[in-house]
Amino acid sequence: MASRADWDAKHRVVEGLLPGPDPFLAEARPYLALAAVGPQCLRGVDVASGAGRHAVEMASWGIETLAVDYSDVALRIAASRAAAAGCGLATRCLDLEDPATDLGDGAYDLVSVFNYLHRPLVPALKRCVRPGGIVVYKTYTQEQRKFDAGPRNPAYLLHERELLELFAGFDHLVYREACESEATAALIARRP
Ligand SMILES: C[S@@+](CC[C@H](N)C(=O)[O-])C[C@H]1O[C@@H](n2cnc3c(N)ncnc32)[C@H](O)[C@@H]1O
């Protein structure tokens, strides 16, 4: 299991080679109109943000965005990427596996999670979405073990259709499972 120090080291190594956002994030954008309640700025949180490739993209859409991760190194990189892109980005260093972790209640119009799974966090994720707000979630499934790279630990791998079960009670707007160069499940859902 990777520790915080392992993640800091990984983030340091890839700092100069940062990929862009997963294109699935952009699929959530049209649904944000449904989340808007007024002229005020939309608020978003990117959970387990790493170096901020999704958080910075959200901020570039004009969303007041918070990047949350437990790697200070990753958050520092995210903040400097946002500055370079001319957008504001707030960061918070938080251990998402601490049972006391609270992301707030109805605080966000857009909640994104990419390439991270900690099942006990899901109730807090669901709670932090504003009614009418959107969650976009994409991560690996069990089938990823067919490939050489990526997580192996079942704790980090979704079962078939599990993402739909985890977000039961939400309106499921887009759902896909794929097993091509990697095995993933991807969901866009709205809190009723
Ligand atoms: C595979 S990376 C994904 C990063 C980003 N979401 C992306 O897709 O580029 C997983 C991230 O989860 C963070 N992470 C792992 N365990 C964590 C924990 N307990 N609390 C907060 N962040 C954690 C790591 O620091 C790392 O940035």
Notes on the structure:
The chain is α/β, with parallel strands linked by helices and 192 residues long. The protein contains seven helices and seven strands. It has helices at residues 4-14, 24-28, 32-35, 53-60, 72-84, 122-128, 162-166, and strands at residues 43-47, 64-69, 90-93, 108-114, 129-140, 171-179, 183-190. The chain has a seven-stranded mixed β-sheet. α1 (4-14) runs parallel beside α5 and α4 runs parallel beside α5. The chain is globular and about 45 Å long. The chain binds S-adenosylmethionine.
- Low-pLDDT segments: none
**Computed Rg:** 16 Å
Strand content: 25-35%
- Order of strands side by side in the largest beta sheet? 3-2-1-4-5-7-6
| Helix-strand topology string | HHHEHEHEEHEHEE
Quick recap:
With 192 residues, this protein is α/β, with parallel strands linked by helices.
Keywords:
single chain; 192 residues; alpha/beta; seven-stranded mixed beta sheet; 7 helices; binds S-adenosylmethionine
